[in-house]
Amino acid sequence: MSESHDNQHAHELTNVPDPAVVNDLYADPGLPEHQWRPTDVDAHAEKRAERQVATLFGLSAICTILFLVSYFAFDIGDDPDVVGGFGASNLFLGLSLAGALLFLGSGIIQWARKLMADHEIVEYRHPAASSDDDREATLAALNAGLEESGIGRRPLVRNSLLGAVGLLGLPAVVALRDLGPTPSQVEKNADYPGAGLEHTLWAKGVRVVRDVVGTPIRPGDVEIGDLFNAEPETLFNGGEDGEPLEGLALQVGKSKGAVVMIRMAPEEIIPGEGRENWSVDGIVCYSKICTHVGCPISLNERKTHHLLCPCHQSTFDLADSGRVIFGPAARALPQLPLAVDEEGYLIAQSDFTEPVGPSFWERG
Amino acid sequence: MDTTKVAKTNATTAATAKKPNRAGAVAGWADERLGLATAMKKNLRKVFPDHWSFMLGEIALWSFVVLLLTGVFLTLWFTPSMGEVQYNGSYDQLRGIHMSEAYASSLRLSFDVRGGLLMRQMHHWAAMLFVASMMVHLLRVWFTGAYRKPRELNWVIGCLLLILGTLEGFTGYSLPDDLLSGTGIRAADGFVKATPVVGSYMSFFMFGGEFPGESIIPRLYTVHVLLIPGLLLALIAAHMLLLVYHKHTQWPGPGRTEQNVVGFPMLPVYAAKAGGFFFMVFGVTALMGALFTINPVWKYGPYDPSKVTAGSQPDWYMGWPDGALRIMPGLETHIWGITISWNVMLPILILPVVMFTILLLLPFIDAWITGDKRDHHLLERPRNAPTRTALMVALMTMYGLFWIAGGNDIIAIKLHASINQITYFLRVAVFVGPVIAFVVTRRWCISLQRKDNETLLHGYETGIIMRSAEGGYSERHLPLPESRAYAIAARDRDPVIDGHPGAEVDANGVPAPTGGRLAALRHRLRTVWYADNVQKPTPAELEEGHHHAEHEHELQAPVEGHAADGHQFDGHHAVEDEHLRSH
Amino acid sequence: MRLLNRSAGRLSRHRRGPLAGLAVVLLGLLMTGGLYTVFSPAQAGSAASSEEQIAQGRELFLVSCAFCHGQNGEGLRTQQGNGDETQFGPTLVGVGAAAVDFQVSTGRMPMSRPGAQAPRKPVAFSDDEIAALAAYVASLGPGPAIPDESDYSLEGMSDEERQQAITNGGQIFLTNCTACHNFEGSGGAMPRGGAAPQIRGVEPRLIYEAMLTGPGQMDSFSNGNLSPEEKRDVIAYLGSMEDMPNYGGFGLGGLGPVVEGMVAWVFGIGLLVGAAVWIAAHTTRSTKKKVDA
Q1: Topology annotation, domain C1-146
Q2: What CATH architecture is C148-247?
Q3: Do the domain assignments include residue B34?
Q4: Domain tally for chain B?
Q5: Structure ipTM
Q6: CB under 8 Å to B53, separation ≥6 — which residues?
């Protein structure tokens, strides 16, 4: 016993710096003499502190009762009670709960500060490491175990074990495979219109309609300087029997099909190669989905035709094929080729000619 | 074997060592079944040193408890489903609108469950405080050198807690399925898709098909209420166990050495202070929930992939990678039919991983450069490790600049600035700023070290101007009180770095191996690490300094006691029994 | 009465102008006509915008607007140093009375100097001067008229219809407006120092006019884009947001997570670190020694 203790002591010395190294200038004056608090030496002060703490606990109890009262007293829902412009229920529940907790907490702390014994005490540290003896014994046990298992001597057993256990990691990964279909499966199954990364609800002849209300748009409705937040009409009539799309089909459809349409003076448009007939009388239509990480964008500057993304400030020039002029996006906004159908409404000439939204590896 | 407690008779009374009081009776009952006395013997009176900065981690601990409590309340009403429903609750402006069940139940919690809005707001505020206090705690640990041996692993656990807390926050604020959280998930889809080779597959697996799918909210919910909280709990337990095992670090001072820990016992003082602090944290969270609106989901409206709001930002702890994303130039490579989105990958997939890895490795990098293998239980003042301090300030500066970038649109409207110019400025500043911060902080620390030495050698400035008989003026210096001088001088001397690698001797007196490019690099780094540091005075210098002070004292002797002598009220001495001398 | 006094005072300051005499003569007419315009805003070409009003408007226009917009509101283009032609002041032919009423009633016009963003300032003209200016500009070419209160009021609707209007307006608002003006109408940043202003607390008439005319860089939402009913609904929604109590406490400017983060750090962490300092602070000490009983 004493031997191991000595060992531990020796270990301590090599591991912990000698105090002289830490302070070679002054001798340690030692812990200062304890100074008493007024509450320790003065009975009046002690009583006062006691009353103070008890008052805090009392206030806490009152606040708890106020919480219960507020819970039943203040209405929420259809006709909420309002105090000073605030929702009364939230305000009073919160304030009374805060009061109950803060008074309780400060009472306990005040108790500790003023009344509990405040003699600092000293505890000695031990090195985090075990004693040398213990280490040796553990190592010996470990080695004995390894030796007896023969894991070192039997490489065939060891390696086949390692291989088998390593392989067990694969089911853990593979079992997650059915979290979702692959992009190509989604496209092939086509469970809803416009399925797949490369497709949207747009197609030849699909009308451009106003978002929210779903009414078709004539070129004459669009004035120079107007910005339309628009959708493919399929959203409103693409379901069974011409019903609006719902649920997943609606959400996915919107997430790829949303467009912005603006009109500018035709001479302001710098037509892109092969895009000469994509606009109708200065009306141009672009995907609303940012090519950076996919936020919908419709912050347009009327005079410059610059479209800004509110998420990361990529800026696109809608007069110039949606070219990126600022920010982290790298690709132009996909443009929707427009035409007018026989009834005089704006339609798409085709789907987008490239995938909308953020880049992905196999996009090309 | 201790047989004193084994029953010797068939009597119905328990065999106890001695008759205990009431608390003892309970403890005895428990001990006979759990045998806790051995473990509790020391731990009930475990000593914790008293310093405000040691309580910062506690804020994180207690806000986590608040998160658990309020979170359980929320789960009772929240429906993690993306199924479409028509809203028929109390909030007029959205009545009749189609939305997900998740969003409808968030509205129900806010408007039709008494106290539901309070709990939602408290949960959200507590989450913000949780991550913030972890970061403040991390800074304290770094700046005081508390991460050094034997506490490196606790640093690693702390870093894991920080990243898990951040992810927990992200999964949490994505759940209500309002316009803002949906926009966040959509951006996350963009990040995932930018992953090389498997990006689109990962996105489809995550969302159970094409974005937004119908699975992401239930999946995030499981991660948010089960997976991450479980990991957090386990890691917090490990963090606390190691804290108890290592015993807390302490500031050097009279009687406080590497071998001991001085402070108040766990029972009763620390139990009371920590318990009281829990109620304070809980109370402040309740106060914030009562007074400040956070995430008013009803105003954002349900998520709709074709809508967006200006000021779309993540919560603050996700702000810095979002800022990096904002100021990154639009680089993308299109080659051989594939697309590599550097503009998304670098700032959001690579940068955070790199920053986090650096953070995780900091203690080991420090130990490798300094070659310090000793145990450390005494804290170092930030000024006494100028390079360490400057390194963290540089990282903080970088973080802060990315953070600013994350709020560049709000800054632009509030300061009437241009987002374009802010972005151009930050593109440069994130590289230049940290360098400037590093240099300034380092020099600042070194001058503080110099000031410390001045005070040790020549005493502190009393602010009393003395006029000598000849008419010359001088400021009176007085020696520091013993305990203060001891505390200032209680620091290691930096090792002397010789001109060539391998010349140093490590802690065990073994010369470091020479040669090798790694050794050369390490030598260069070590030289930089300690360069220009000011050492504390040698005993000889101190001796001379005191001598000099005495000499000065002699010169001033003629005026001693004649001029104002207010120095006893300068805060360096106890004032009792001292009076202004009457003339 | 106050209104009339104010306009009289304003006019007297313009007496130095060459046609000041005429303005004074017009005063009597304006006292009746001006009041009428205030309560029943001018319609382009309607009987209300009398020849005299247009003449007064032209007078004011020449003094305050023509420098940038040209003598006849035809706009002014100037050469920049690099040879690019930039618009100094756009043409006002066809912008209509609504645009004038919006720009001048919010103090945006006259601008102190040309620039991308016209900030809101104290209003420089009296209500009937604005009406006169609007009448003059409306006479330059057909354009949107100043909306009547009946265009954007929910007066005379049943509770259910009101409810419907507000809900619908919310959807239109979130689709068309929040992108720039934020979910609470707190405003947002636009490229190169531009900003979409705060629209919370702005008069319904001005919001209607802004949608109709697209002031500054804002897109217009003509009646072919958002129908008059939809515009009315947006205004109804904004009004309902205004009337709504702050359910969760202070709104923190309605700016979203950035401000929330600041509050968490400054208020939350500030208070809790303060509490930590208090908990660890040493209490007062006494010089007395404890007397063992």
Answers
A1: Cytochrome Bc1 Complex; Chain D, domain 2 (1.10.760)
A2: Orthogonal Bundle (1.10)
A3: no
A4: 2
A5: 0.89
A6: B140, B144, C276
Q: Is the dihedral of CA B163, B167, B170, B172 positive or negative?
A: negative
Note whether C233 contacts B: Cβ–Cβ < 8 A: no
Return averaged pLDDT per consecutive 10 residues of chain C, 293 residues in all: 36 40 46 46 50 87 86 75 62 87 89 78 88 88 87 86 91 92 89 87 90 89 91 92 90 89 94 94 79 56
Domain span including residue B206: 59-367
**C-alpha pair distances (Å), B145 with each of B150, B378, B382, B397, B488:** 11, 9, 8, 19, 16
Q: Which of A86, A302, A306 lies at the smallest CB-CB distance from C245?
A: A86
pLDDT recorded at residue B544: 83
- A227-251 pLDDT tens trace: 999 999 999 988 888 889 988 999 9
Identify whether the C-beta of residue A16 lies closer than 8 Å to the C-beta of residue B378.
Answer: no
Which chain B residues are within 8 Å of C160, Cβ to Cβ? none
Helix axes C159-176, C228-243, angle to 10 degrees: 100
Over the range C181-194, which residues count as b (16 or more CB within 10 Å of their CB) and which as e? bbbbbbbbbbbbbb
pLDDT digits 0-9 by tens, A275-294: 889 999 999 999 999 999 99
Min Cα distance B120 → chain A (Å) is 11
A28 chain-B contacts, CB cut-off 8 A:
254-255, 257, 486
Core vs surface per residue A73-102: b (16+ CB within 10 A) or e: ebebeeebbbeeebbbbbbbbbbbbbbbbb
**How many residues belong to chain C?**
293
Same domain, B413 and B326: no
Same domain (yes/no): B362, B400: no
CB contact under 8 A, A302 and C225: no
**Could you report the per-residue pLDDT of B278-308, keeping only the tens digit for each?**
999 999 999 999 999 999 999 999 999 999 9
B341 near A CB under 8 A:
yes
Give chain A's domains with CATH numbers.
Answer: 199-363 (2.102.10.10)
Helix axes C96-105, C204-213, angle to 10 degrees: 130
Nearest beta carbon to residue C163 from set B95, B294, B406: B95
* Token pair of B201 as six digits: 């597959």
Angle subtended at Cα B75 by Cα B73 and Cα B78, rounded to the nearest 5 degrees? 120
